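Input record, target 12 of the design panel.
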């Protein structure tokens, strides 16, 4: 656990970047620091590994003040990932990843074997090991940055806007990859971002900071969205806070119809889903039975109501197609069913 105990950072020019910050980042969880530009996120993060020293207050790592640990020792137990990966341009990928093991005096063979293992772990082709950073895409470089931070298996990972410099599609896959890795590794992660969607997706807990380095609220994402502490937090969460809340509402309680999906014999309805080899092929209407119309799917029980609703909006029938993990149709959520679930969500 990382604990901020009344931590203040005053820069020499008098700027108060962080103001009496109290915060806990529990072991094995992702704690996200989010807030507008200049609110002290990076300063807070860097005080954990003493790249910046606090002016007042204490930061504790499992109860031990970091101020009492010499920086090299401290950093051995703390991986650090930054925007644009910060790789050494003249070192091959494998050697970039093995940076910390080399510093720790591991023999070259063991360090490289560990680097190769990590390369695969972060979803990269081992064939990239011999390349130089400039021969990789931005997203691949970020993955290497994550692999490098994990190389000596540190219990703590600090991540400073690690995915901000890549396009939205790559960012989404990096976020998914981080969540997958974390489900295996259970690191204590402190993650800085200015993107509220990223914070809500990744954080077990999200700390919202306001300019001046004051904590506005810390809560689980779901609570943050349903109970923002004040107008600043409400505004920061954006006008589509209600829509975002839907991503925490599960779909496993939705009642599905199977008679609209050729599964149990088609009902006499305006729309019918054509299923081929168990998979959706398209909707057909009574008026135009030969024309396949578009459809949207959600994975029943895994995806949230937000995805289910999106799936319904993509279908002219207004119904969302529920599939299993293999993409096979399990039924259809009609507009009435979705309406009912939304009404219940609004109550809760
Ligand atoms: N070395 C420094 N000297 C003086 N002021 C600084 C220094 N570093 C940062 N600051 C100021 O401290 C405040 C917090 O900066 P910090 O970089 O921690 O914010 P941030 O929330 O990470 O911002 P961003 O999202 O823009 O990166 C800002 O007002 C910044 O200008």
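The sequence produced for target 12 reads:
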């Amino acid at each position: 656990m990382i604990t901020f105990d009344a931590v203040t950072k005053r820069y020499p020019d008098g700027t108060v970047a962080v103001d009496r910050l109290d915060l806990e980042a529990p072991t094995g969880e992702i704690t996200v620091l989010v807030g507008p530009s200049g609110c002290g996120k990076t300063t807070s993060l860097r005080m954990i590994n003493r790249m910046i020293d606090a002016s007042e207050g204490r930061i504790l790592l499992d109860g031990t003040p970091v101020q009492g640990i010499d920086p090299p020792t401290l950093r051995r137990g703390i991986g650090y990932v930054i925007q644009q990966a910060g790789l050494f341009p003249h070192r091959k990928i494998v050697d970039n990843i093995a940076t910390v093991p080399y510093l720790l005096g591991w023999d070259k063979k063991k360090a490289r074997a560990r680097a190769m293992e990590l390369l695969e772990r972060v979803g990269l082709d081992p064939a990239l090991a011999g390349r130089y950073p400039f021969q990789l895409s931005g997203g691949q470089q970020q993955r290497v940055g994550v692999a490098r931070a994990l190389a000596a298996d540190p219990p703590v990972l600090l991540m400073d806007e690690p995915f901000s410099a890549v396009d939205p599609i790559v960012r989404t896959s990096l976020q998914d990859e981080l969540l997958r890795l974390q489900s295996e590794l259970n690191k204590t992660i402190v993650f800085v971002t200015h993107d509220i969607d990223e914070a809500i997706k990744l954080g077990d807990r999200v700390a919202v900071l306001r300019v001046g380095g004051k904590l506005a609220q810390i809560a689980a994402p779901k609570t943050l969205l349903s109970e923002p502490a004040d107008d600043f937090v409400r505004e920061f969460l954006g006008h589509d806070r209600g829509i975002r809340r839907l991503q925490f509402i599960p779909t496993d309680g939705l009642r599905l119809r199977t008679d609209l999906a050729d599964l149990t014999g088609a009902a006499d309805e305006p729309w019918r889903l054509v299923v081929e080899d168990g998979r959706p092929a398209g909707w057909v209407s009574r008026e135009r039975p030969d024309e396949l119309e578009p459809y949207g799917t959600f994975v029943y029980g895994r995806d949230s109501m937000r995805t289910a609703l999106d799936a319904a909006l993509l279908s002219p029938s207004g119904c969302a197609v529920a599939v299993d993990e293999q993409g096979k149709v399990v039924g259809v959520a009609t507009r009435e069913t979705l309406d009912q679930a939304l009404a219940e969500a609004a109550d809760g």
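The longest strand covers residues 16-25.
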